[in-house]
Design a protein that fits this description.
CATH topology: Beta-Lactamase
Largest sheet: 5 strands, antiparallel
Number of strands: 5
CATH architecture: 2-Layer Sandwich
Number of domains: 1
CATH superfamily: Dynein light chain 2a, cytoplasmic
Family: Belongs to the LAMTOR4 family.
GO biological process, one term: positive regulation of TOR signaling
Keywords: Lysosome
Strand content: 25-35%
Radius of gyration: 20 Å
Order of helices and strands: EEHEEE
Shape: globular
Distance between the termini: 70 Å
Protein name: Late endosomal/lysosomal adaptor and MAPK and MTOR activator 4
Number of helices: 1
InterPro entries: LAMTOR4
Strand order of the largest sheet: 2-1-5-4-3
């Protein structure tokens, strides 16, 4: 069992080679070549956007892509790309209504 399967609120994961081939996967991302291609393209794009922000000798540590109800977290380690899709817990917002106080 991979450690990725034990991440809280994880609903899918991918482990990719540097060139984007799927090594292992599970959950919502099982054998998801489309997401693998998008993530690989995103990583390639980071080095082309701004060399000062993304130096070639200093690669990123983590990329987070956040949606309303889920997010993708992308990390590089040991020449592999790790992608985890996590469910985001809904944030409840308290609505406070003011009531007028009338002294009689």
């Amino acid at each position: 069992m991979l450690a990725l399967e034990r991440i809280p609120d994880q609903i899918g994961y991918l482990v990719l080679t540097e060139d984007g081939a799927v090594l292992t996967s599970g959950g919502d991302l099982e054998n998801d070549e489309r997401v693998a291609n998008i993530i690989t393209s995103l990583i390639t794009l980071t080095s082309k956007v701004d060399p000062k922000a993304f130096p070639l000798h200093d690669p990123f540590e983590k990329i987070s892509i956040k949606y309303k109800d889920h997010c993708y977290i992308v990390c590089l380690s040991n020449k592999k790309i790790y992608v985890v899709k996590r469910k985001l817990l809904s944030q409840t917002t308290a609505i406070v209504e003011q009531q007028s106080i009338i002294d009689v």
